[in-house]
């Protein structure tokens, strides 16, 4: 299932807030790498990917992880 840009952005934001509840996503530039900016460890990132997969109904393979580095990347991946 392909999401609209707005739906993809909301899904990514919701998933990030489930992993890092106190994250200030409004202060996070669209091109900022999540793992660095939000200090996500590998388990956090896997949980994030699982939330995106479940929320979008789209299978996300390890080969896709490079497409999930920033908000811009995630929105393009989920809405493309």
Automatic annotation (TrEMBL):
Gene3D superfamilies: ACP-like
Organism: Kribbella sp. HUAS MG21
Pfam family, any one: PP-binding
Protein name as it appears in the record: Phosphopantetheine-binding protein
InterPro entries referenced in this protein's UniProt entry, alphabetically: ACP-like_sf, PP-bd_ACP
Ranges of residues in domain Carrier: 23-78
